[in-house]
Structure formats: C-alpha cells, structure tokens
Amino acid sequence: MRSVLIIGAGRSASSLINYLLAKSETENLHLVVADLSLALAEKKTQKHPNATPIALDIFNSAERRAAIEKASIVISMLPAHLHIEIAKDCVQFKKHLVTASYISDAMQALDEEVKKNNLIFMNEIGLDPGIDHMSAMKVIDEIRSKGGNMLLFESFCGGLVAPEYDNNLWNYKFTWAPRNVVLAGQGGAAKFIQEGTYKYIPYSALFRRTEFLEVEGYGKFEAYSNRDSLKYRSVYGLDDVLTLYRGTIRRVGFSRAWNMFVQLGMTDDSYILEGSENMSYRQFINSFLPYHPTDSVEIKTRLILKIDQDDIMWDKLLELDLFNPNKKVNLPNATPAQILEKILTDSWALEPEDKDMIVMYHKFGYELNGEKKQIDSKMVCIGDDQTYTAMAKTVGLPVAMATLLILNGKITTPGVQLPIKKEVYEPILKELEEYGVVFNEQNVPYFGYNPDLF
User: Fold this and answer.
1) Mean pLDDT over all residues of the chain?
2) Does residue 139 sit in helix, strand or coil?
3) Are 417 and 120 in contact (CB under 8 A)?
4) What region holds the Saccharopine dehydrogenase NADP binding domain (predicted)?
5) Which band of pLDDT confidence, cut at 50, 70 and 90, is reported for residue 349?
6) Residue 195 CA to chain centroid, in angstroms?
7) pTM for this structure?
C-alpha cells in the first residue's frame, strides 16, 4: 500500500484524515498519523484498519527521519515555522511534501534541490492561502483566455460563526487560532494599490478603513485590509493591474468595536504587565486609563473612547465582563495581547452545538473589446459540527486532494510551489463542490474607482 505520513493531528487535520481514510481502499492508501499526542492521533484515526497512529516528536531527528523515510508522500499540518526540517528530510529521502502554509524564505531556498530531484513541494493549499489562490486564478485565466485585460482584483476571506449561532453583540466567535485574531494587522502598515496609486493604512487606523460587501442570503459584511495585498501581484501575473486589495471579512460593526482595543493598547504583544497573574479584568482595563480621584473605571473608559453609555459599543464592552473586579487573569508574565485573548476566549469560544462559517469574496475587474466588465465570485461554507468545521474542511480537503493528485501523477510540475497552475486548481475546485465549497460567479457592472477622487 502507498503510505501517507500526516504530521500533526490538530483541528485542521480532521477533514483531511477523514477524506483520505474514505479513499484508502480504492486508492490503496495506508495513513500514518503522527502527533506529539498519541491520544490525539488515535482519536483522529478512529481505529481504522488503514491507519496507524504514532507518537512523534519532530525535534527528535532520528524518529522524524525514520517516519519520513518510510512514507510515499508527507503532509505537514504543523505550524509554518516547523516545516523546514521536515522539508529538508523530504529532499534527502526524495519524498513529495504538501503543506497548507505560506512559502517561507527557507522553504523557497530548497526549490533548486526539489526540482533537481523531480519532487513536488506543494504549499499554500489550504483555505487562505489555498482556495483563494485557486478560485482567483481560475477566473483570471478565463478572462485572459478571452483576451481580457485585468484592471482590478479584490479578494476577501473570513472565518465567522454561522448565522443561527451568531448570538453575541460582536457577531463573532473564535473559529480558529484566537492569538492570530488578536494580533491581526500588526507588524507594519497595510499596503495595497488603488487606481494605480499605492495606499498605506497604519495599524492605528486599520479598523476604521473598511470595505462593505453583500452576500445573498447572508447579509452585509465588512472587510479590513490585509497587511500586504501586493505579495501575490507578480505570482498572479497582475503587475500592471490598477487596483489590488486583499482583506479580512467580519460582520458590520466588528471593526469599529475592535478599534477600541487598539486605541487603548490592549492588543500590544511587545511588553509584559507586572503582576498580571493576580490582576482582575477590571484592573487590566484600568491599567490603560489615566488616574482620576473620583471617576470610575467605567466613566474613564467612556471618556477616553468618546462613547456614550447608550452607544452599542459600550454594550459590547459590558458583554465581555471587562469591568468585573472578581474575574482573575491568572496568566503570569503576560502581555496585553495575551490577557485580551484570555478575556475574549471566555466570551467567544464556540459552544459544543455551534457551527462555523467561511465566507470568501473575489472581485475581478477587466477590459474586453474596449468595454469594462466585472465578475464577482462568492463562496459560503458552513461547518458540520465541532470536529468537521468549515475551517477544517476548507483547509484540510484541498491538502488531501492535492496529495492524492500528486500520488496519482496528475500533478507533475516539480518544485516549491503554490496552487496556481490549471493542473492543480481545476480538479481540486471541481471536487470541492461535492463537499459544499461552491463559488457562485456573477457578471456585475464594473465598479472601479473614480480616478478624480483617489
């Protein structure tokens, strides 16, 4: 049997493992699911006859190399910074590699060796990055095949809670890594291009500069800019495009509310708060407020944020129980961002019966035969439950499908790559539709921007 080594059995691996197990008989597969926690690997493989759960510490080079050497292909579902040693072993033992992570500089540096060994190192084949690349390139290639010239490309994606479980004032719950949500947008100004002009949004203003989107059947959304929208300009062949913007989707009102944390300094991860372990939630927010001999913490908060007591923003803060003097942080040597993450997790954790939702929205503006046109492409995916979430499906299924296509010789281009070639995106997008990941494309009037006002 063909051996598929999956390293990492976390949340994103659920649908991936389930897909490959379902195909294991017809495709002659045996899965080796490796995780630091043997119990987790056992839980994900469900005693399937074509799966072997193993405990694996990837920092134990002998264990790691032994597991990789036996595999026909390797999937790494670990955090991105942990892929590189696995990748080097894959080069040595001549094994194909699939990951859902962004291509790091260290990974890209292996490209020459990977090609020399006729190997495929497929990266960025999850949701975002992944499905966004594939669905975008499909339409861009179609426009070009008709002789169209790209003018505008905007791409938005967000992980949210499904509408029927959207029951807090923030219209948000954590469907993935909370830390990434808290730190979103930090590390430099957001950069994009509009009507041929470079635009920059500093972190301090990021959540007050949003675009609005409408998705039929699901209502109105907003999006704030990703840090670097221009990263894929050359990769997509859009060097001459006039407008290129990528953003993160939230429900309307979230960004304005989140901006309160940014302005107070509660999302900062660069320093430690003294005495954080014994700090109450009330003391935490008060540590960012000026001293006043008579004003309460509540009054000081409203004054500094310039919000009235009947403002919905105030109700959102109250809902988080931020002013509770009895709730303790219980985190030693914690940064503001770590404490905020703890507070939000108390309020925004998914309940056992909750389902998550992925929303993706692309806009393609182009010129054909002297006429400006636009295609809007929208996708909404709802999770099945807390194991097979929409996030797990949209991250794990493309990884699994790419793995099988590589094993079966359907993807043949060697090298360190992302899924922008037709041999990759065409079969995967088609099969994803069977799992409820469907893009609805509409021809709409060209939007563009008024060049006199940019």
Assistant:
1) 95
2) helix
3) yes
4) 4-121
5) very high
6) 27
7) 0.92
Tokens linked to 25: 């008989």
Q: What percent of the chain clears pLDDT 90, i.e. is strictly above it? A: 92
Which two three-digit tokens encode residue 129?
């990055």
- 218, two tokens: 């699901």
pLDDT tens digit sequence for 170-181: 999 998 889 999
Residue whose tokens read 């009054």: 299
- Measure the CA–CA gap between 170 and 315, rounded to whole angstroms: 10
Q: Could you give the CA distance from residue 138 to residue 157 in angstroms, rounded to a whole number? A: 17
pLDDT at 452: 56
Host H or E run for residue 404: helix 390-407
Q: CA 108, CA 127: separation in Å to the nearest integer?
A: 20
- For residue 124, name the pLDDT band (cuts at 50, 70, 90): very high
Residue among 147, 220, 138, 150 at smallest CA distance from 374:
150
Amino acid at 132: D
CA distance 50 to 55: 17
| Residues sharing a CB contact under 8 Å with residue 333, sequence separation 6 or more, in sequence order | 272, 276, 277
